[in-house]
């Protein structure tokens, strides 16, 4: 698909399309390019699922903003609190939580 030509500002994962830019003017240009490609291909986006110029977006298990991408998986906190296992039973528990 033609959209892969624009991978510097477009990321596609299954049915999620992320268009990103540091400058709002560039972002609007990128949106125009991508939406034109979709229009020509007769691909339509639900308004209810369209997010434009959000300061923070939750994608899969991540919070994404203009500065960074943070994992929001709560298992990380639990995993960090665990002590190193000393028995086989403790090791099995440790592995279960880690996976």
Number of strands: 5
- Computed Rg: 20 Å
Our count of helices gives 3
Task: Going across the biggest sheet, name each strand in turn.
Answer: 3-4-5
General form? elongated
State the end-to-end CA separation: 35 Å
Low-pLDDT sequence parts: none
Helix content: 25-40%
Average of the residue pLDDT scores: 77
Secondary-structure element string? EEHEEEHH
- Tell me the strand percentage band: 15-25%
Most strands sheet = 3 strands, antiparallel
Q: Structural class, judged by helices and strands?
A: alpha+beta
What does this entry look like structurally?
With 99 residues, the protein is of the alpha+beta class. It has a domain at 2-53. The protein is built from 3 helices and 5 strands. It has helices spanning 24-40, 75-81, 88-98, and strands at residues 10-13, 16-19, 56-59, 62-65, 69-71. A 3-stranded antiparallel beta sheet has the order 3-4-5, with no helix packed on it. The longest helix is centred in the first third of the chain and has 17 residues, at 24-40. 0% of the residues are buried. The model has no long low-confidence stretch (mean pLDDT 77).
């Amino acid at each position: 698909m033609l959209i892969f030509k624009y991978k510097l500002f477009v990321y596609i994962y299954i049915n999620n399309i992320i268009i990103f830019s540091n400058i709002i003017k560039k972002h609007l240009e990128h949106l125009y390019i991508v939406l034109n490609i979709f229009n020509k291909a007769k691909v339509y986006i639900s308004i209810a699922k369209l997010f434009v110029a959000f300061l923070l977006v939750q994608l899969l298990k991540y919070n994404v903003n203009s500065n960074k991408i943070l994992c929001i998986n709560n298992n990380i906190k639990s995993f960090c609190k665990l002590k190193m296992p000393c028995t086989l039973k403790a090791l099995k528990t440790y592995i279960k939580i880690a996976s």
